Amino acid sequence: MDIEIQRIDGALFGARIFGVEPSALPDDATAADVLRRAAIEHHGTLVFEFGRMLEVGELNALTRVFGENEFAPGLITGYGKGKVDGEEDLTIEEQVVRLEQQGIDPYLLFLGNVHPRTGERIEITEKFFGDWEWHTDMSYIPNPPTFTLLHSRQIPTEGGDTGFCSQVLAARTLPTELRRQLEGRRIKHDSTYSSNGSLRVGMTEPATPIDAIGTYHPILRRLPGTEHEALFLGRRTNGYVEDLPLEESEALLDALWAHATKDEFTYRHEWRCGQVVVWDNRLVMHCRYPVDPSETRFMWRTQTVGEEVVASSA
Ligand SMILES: [Fe+2]
């Protein structure tokens, strides 16, 4: 495989990848190694330029380069609605069987306003096409998925860009005083709301962030086997710094978020059809800019199995 890797123009991180043949990946250990090393070097943000629609098996093969394929989010969290309407009480195994009976791959999540089987336009709530704030996918569970992949099938004429924000750069440039304040501390990552700000099914609004249901993770993490250290903030809504009075927690989080999402740490991706963007949730946060609901947008999403968050000594 003749893989070409180019830095993304105008961004301090990220790379465009040309020449990958996804169906050949399972048998090409060298190519897989090149891609994994590129991911580390470019802060976990790779844009694959395929210029065509991938088959499900091809996207799963590309996903497998970066880790073990994980079931789609609704299946593994139990939060909110999975892909099987009205069947929320089914076990993961039962949901997988049901999805496969319907001809739906259990690793794929469909995002957008196109029916995955008929290809027809479907109505979605306006909120679903609004702003999705900066976040790390599923950071509210103990072992959040490591890599996420998005494959563009249909894109709007404008809008719907995905933003990426290097938390490696954010950690590297932390002001000394801020670094001192977060030393040894953890943030609780709230599970109440989805990325578009909707209350998840079965959840209620907590009285304060201290009462929110979620998982504590170290604020500063490191990637074992690499030189990377990264901030790990999750999402701002209902975030809480462990053991601090609420006011102090809010002030520290505000300062951290203002630093972590500075323009110079970000790359805004304008989609073309037939791309796959892979990102490492340990190294970047992402956001989605709004889409006009009269437009059509349809993406396939996969992810890899997560791992424990390793604290970095500040
Ligand atoms: Fe996301």
Description:
The protein has 314 residues and is of the alpha+beta class. 21% of the residues lie in helices and 24% in strands. It contains 7 helices and 17 strands. It has helices at 29-41, 56-66, 73-77, 92-101, 167-172, 176-182, 246-260; strands at 4-7, 15-18, 45-49, 69-70, 109-112, 132-135, 147-154, 162-166, 186-190, 214-218, 220-222, 229-231, 240-241, 266-269, 275-280, 284-288, 298-304. Strands 1, 2, 3, 4, 5, 7, 15 and 17 form an 8-stranded mixed β-sheet that branches. It has a 4-stranded antiparallel β-sheet with strand order 6-16-8-14. Strands 10-9-13 form a 3-stranded antiparallel β-sheet. A hairpin with a 6-residue loop joins strand 11 (220-222) and strand 12 (229-231). The chain is globular and about 50 Å long. The chain starts with a strand and ends in a 10-residue tail after the last strand.
